[in-house]
Write a structure and sequence with these properties.
The chain has 361 residues and is α/β, with parallel strands linked by helices. It has 2 domains: 192 residues, Medium-chain alcohol dehydrogenases, catalytic domain (Quinone Oxidoreductase, Chain A, domain 1), CATH 3.90.180.10; 139 residues, Rossmann fold (3-Layer(aba) Sandwich). 26% of the residues lie in helices and 26% in strands. Strands 3, 5, 6, 9, 10, 17 and 18 form a 7-stranded mixed beta sheet that branches. The protein starts with a strand and ends with a strand.
Length: 361
């Protein structure tokens, strides 16, 4: 039976979002209806509203979410009614060439729900990252649901659904940070602070936070940075080298995604060190670098998509670490808001005064 719920919709590029009635169909084969308990406000949602992803309006925004399975469709066997789940946008197919080679975090054919959610007039909605969780309920594929400890705070663990996981994974999975390593993170918003928390969890001994904003550097310190660099006060590369016995860091993570910050990361790493790009550049950005520099520095130049995570492997582990007090995920939640406050949260996000606003239902 079709359900009517309230959800946050973006109807046109750059226009304020609106709270509207959404129709949730009965789940089809492989589908799951999830009652949303909390959903973080991510920059990606703002990119959808601004037309930075595609022009398939109207969008049902929201994707960093946790909730409880309410109903399941035919053939669903990964989750059951009543399960507490964190949603993810990487529901791996298991049969593409990446999955068959044992690298499912590179899956080329991830799953989404078989049916469309709509507005009351029948207009089909495009759910953000295939999820659409700024709503009382949403419809997703079973593979987009990862069961975790049901006693965890939904507002906290739901953030693993995107930005925080991207940062944690950039350090732990893509960068392969290990005990005793030195790590520098350029850009200390939600993703960058996630990388700092991941580097600390992995056992890095020198963790350098780089940003222009003193407030973000304070967040980074609270999450594990051992040193901070104000990027506006001097040469970032020289400052990182000075903190690493002139050698540069073993791993440098660019959480900004601009040519100038990537070049800083490239030159600020140790010989044969690793550069990880997790900040998302725009299509118009270009990079110019002498090829001999790439050859002579050696090492690895990597991009990190979703922190190269495998949700069913990583989410339960990270939630358990949070529950044990070993991973301070709760520090990412700056404020808790309602569905009607999403547009205001976008404005707050632009000011850079929050790590995450979280919609709590």
């Amino acid at each position: 039976m079709t359900q009517r719920v309230q959800g946050v919709v973006s109807r046109a590029q750059g226009e304020p979002v609106s709270l509207e009635t959404i129709l949730i169909p009965d789940p089809g084969p492989g589908d799951v209806v999830v009652t949303i308990q909390a959903c973080g406000v991510c920059h990606t949602d703002l990119h959808y509203r601004e037309g930075g992803i595609n022009d398939e309006y109207p969008f049902l925004l929201g994707h960093e979410a946790a909730g409880v399975v309410e109903a399941v469709g035919e053939g669903v066997d990964r989750v059951a009614v009543g399960d507490f789940v964190v949603l993810n946008w990487r529901a791996v197919c298991g049969v593409c060439r990446a999955c068959k080679r044992g690298r499912p975090w590179y899956c080329f054919d991830t799953h989404n729900a078989s049916k469309k959610m709509t507005l009351e007039d029948g207009t089909e909605l495009s759910p953000a990252l295939g999820i659409g969780a700024f709503a009382e309920k949403t419809l997703v594929h079973e593979g987009q649901c990862t069961k975790v400890d049901p006693t965890a705070d939904p507002a906290v663990v739901g953030l693993l659904g995107c930005g925080v996981m991207a940062g944690l994974g950039a350090a732990m999975n893509t960068g392969n940070v290990g005990r005793g390593d030195s790590v520098a993170v350029i850009g200390c918003g939600g993703v960058g602070c996630g990388a700092i928390a991941g580097a600390r969890l992995a056992g890095a001994t020198t963790i350098i936070a780089v940003d222009l904003d003193p407030g973000k550097l304070a967040w980074a310190t609270d999450l594990g940075a051992t040193d901070t660099i104000d990027a506006s006060s001097g040469d970032v590369v020289e400052a990182i080298q000075a903190l690493t016995d002139t050698f540069g860091a073993d791993v440098v993570i660019d959480a900004v995604g601009r040519p100038e910050t990537w070049l800083q990361a490239f030159h600020a790493r140790d010989l044969a060190g690793t550069v990880v790009l997790v900040g998302v550049p725009t299509p118009d950005m270009k990079l110019e670098l002498p090829l001999i520099d790439v050859f002579s520095h050696g090492g690895a130049l990597k991009s990190s998509w979703y922190g190269d995570c495998l949700p069913e492997r990583d989410f339960p582990m990270l939630v358990d670490l949070y529950q044990q007090g070993r991973l301070p995920l709760d520090k990412f939640v700056t404020e808790r808001i309602g569905l009607a406050d999403v547009e205001a949260a976008f404005a707050t996000m632009k000011k850079g005064t929050v790590l995450r606003s979280v919609v709590v239902l």
